[in-house]
Amino acid sequence: MLFEKLGSKECGPSYEDDFHNMSSLDQEMQNFEAELFSPARLRKHIDIALLQIEKYLSDTSLRGLKLTPPQKLIDDVKSLMSMADNSSQHSEYEVNEQLLDKMIELYIQTGIQVHSTGYMGRQFSGVMPLAGVIDFISSIINQPSSFYEAAQLPNVVEHLMAEELNQFIGWQADTYAMVTTSGGSLANLTAILAARNDKYPLFWKQGINGLEGKRPAILVGADAHYSMARAAGIIGIGDEHIIRLPNNAQQQIDTNQIPTILSQAKQDGLDVFCLVASAGTTSVGAFDQLNEIADITEQHNIWLHVDAAHGGSLLVSDHLRQKLAGIDRVDSFTWDLHKTMFVPAMCTLLFYKNKVKSYSAFQQDASYVFEKKQDIYTAFDSAEQNFECTKRPLIMNFWMLWTLYGRRVFSKKLEYLCELTQQAFQLIQLQDDFTTLHKPECNILCFRYTPSNQDQCAFDDFQVAIRNQLKVDGKFFISKVEIHQESALRVVFMNHKIRISHVNLLLEEIRRIGQMLITTE
Ligand SMILES: *Cc1c(COP(=O)(O)O)cnc(C)c1O
User: Fold this and answer.
1) Measuring from atom 6 of ligand 1, which residue has the nearest CA?
2) Closest atom of ligand 1 to CA, residue 281
3) Would you say the CB of residue 184 lies under 6 angstroms from ligand 1?
4) By CB count within 10 A, which of 70, 133, 348, 502 is most buried?
5) How far is the CA of 339 from the centre of ligand 1 (A)?
6) How far is the CA of 125 from the centre of ligand 1 (A)?
7) Which atom of ligand 1 is nearest to the CA of 336?
8) Three-point CA angle 273, 274, 280, nearest 5°
9) Which long-range CB contacts under 8 A does 461-469 form with residues at least 24 apart?
């Protein structure tokens, strides 16, 4: 009856017209599916990408970063985009494969060449290629992992990997927690937010009024990563209430000075609730003495957070773990797997000694989450402990590598890189025209080129100029850093293919550029 009515002439298009339209739409969507989502097409595209990746991974040339002027890159991109407009495709959705190939090539070529022996610059790594394969799967099946029901395996794996890694920490089963987050900066922010809410339980609800006149302050090492100051700013502590602890000669926090600084802060009316130490400072890779620091923070009831973004990985090596002695006594620590565990960005772990407190970052009252009716599924959700709502299944790359290859692959790589850094340190010490600035503790090494024919007063600008010229030349990519307010050159060894002969080449290149700069001044 209804159809008859709709189909009558007075009521506009007939049902048959509708049916006809539906069927052509159906047809259209079928084509859409066949052209865009066909596994056979995908295989062709993967082949194109794989050929490029093979070429990239088997290129053994010494190269760092080919720095392209942005305008040149803008032109390149525009010309690729116009190629898409003009392409003569057989059908509406057909991919221009030549264009795809060119786009991938441009992407690869303009990046920092992290798989080359010339890359000694930063802390992101040449990843284990298999991790990229897993990442590809994650991208296609797309399981956002803050909730168990959306990402069952990643959530279970997170729990099991926390247990697996806890064998190097030593906490009692079921008493601690681990969350994955998008980066070390976010992990640091999350941790000190948890610390703040733990110390000032009214803050979450009442904001600064909940402080009841207290003036919260945090202590951080002189070389703390910039994300710490930023995090303190975000959570409302105020730049003036970040107290920098001086370093000792090893560029660690000088623990002897902490008690005096604490009592001075108290006299100034500050309430120190958190101390942030580093396990592997970004600048020189120094490891703070966690046991000594924990003695003090435990006594004063101060939350101890350790930024082990860089150095946390040393935990998996029997030879290197000692650098993190005392990690079992800290309240929280950050560990970037996307740095020294050789998986692609992002994957960061944030560990809490006390499982209950892992809920305090985003909850005014930790008990709230436990009163809520959890079932066996939602007990595995991490949404209440991490900032992200939609989150990559961050743990999957690492889990697969760890399971397939075992711990030894990671410890071997790390031990080699730390050994190489010691060799490089000794090599540089033997050069009359170079100066070392610290004894390296992991895979970061800072030094200066200090030839006698250069004016000492100009040494700072000189290091920066050398580094910039190196970058433009494109053979090596290294970084620069300020140590004791002096500019220095910095190498981070992330690539096991680097040999001491490459370091020798780097020194020669620095000499050549340095001398060229002196003569053209
Ligand atoms: C790299 C680093 C960070 C920042 O981590 P992201 O993952 O880059 O956000 C924080 N702290 C230290 C010590 C680092 O080395």
Assistant:
1) 184
2) 13
3) yes
4) 348
5) 9
6) 13
7) 7
8) 170
9) 461/487, 462/514, 462/517, 463/487, 463/488, 463/489, 465/517, 466/510, 466/513, 466/514, 466/517, 469/513, 469/516, 469/517
- The response to whether residue 125 sits with its C-beta less than 6 Å from ligand 1 reads no
Residue 310 Cα: closest atom of ligand 1: 15
Antiparallel, parallel or unpaired: β 216-221 and 177-181: unpaired
Helix (H) or strand (E) segment spanning residue 482: strand 479-483
Ligand 1 atom closest to the CA of 346, numbered from 1: 7
Residue 135 near ligand 1, beta carbon < 6 Å: no
Per-residue pLDDT of the chain (521 residues; tens, 9 = 90+): 444 444 445 555 555 555 556 788 899 898 889 888 999 999 999 999 999 999 999 999 998 888 889 999 999 999 999 987 655 666 778 889 999 999 999 999 999 899 999 999 989 888 999 999 999 999 999 999 989 999 999 999 999 999 999 999 999 999 999 999 999 999 999 999 999 999 999 999 999 898 989 999 999 999 999 999 999 999 999 888 999 999 999 999 999 999 999 999 999 999 999 999 999 999 999 999 999 999 999 999 999 999 999 999 999 999 999 999 999 999 999 999 999 998 999 999 999 999 999 999 997 454 444 446 788 998 899 888 999 989 999 999 999 999 999 999 999 999 999 999 999 999 999 999 999 999 999 999 999 999 999 888 889 999 999 999 998 888 999 999 998 889 999 999 999 999 999 999 999 999 999 999 999 87
DSSP conformation class of 121: S
Give the type of residue at 170.
G
Closest CA to 423 of 480, 340, 501, 476: 501
Nearest atom of ligand 1 to the alpha carbon of 183 = 7
- In angstroms, what is the span from residue 191 Cα to ligand 1's centroid? 14
Q: Is 106 exposed, middle or buried (0-12, 13-18, 19+ CB in 10 A)?
A: middle
Compute the distance from residue 338 Cα to the ligand 1 centre, in Å.
10
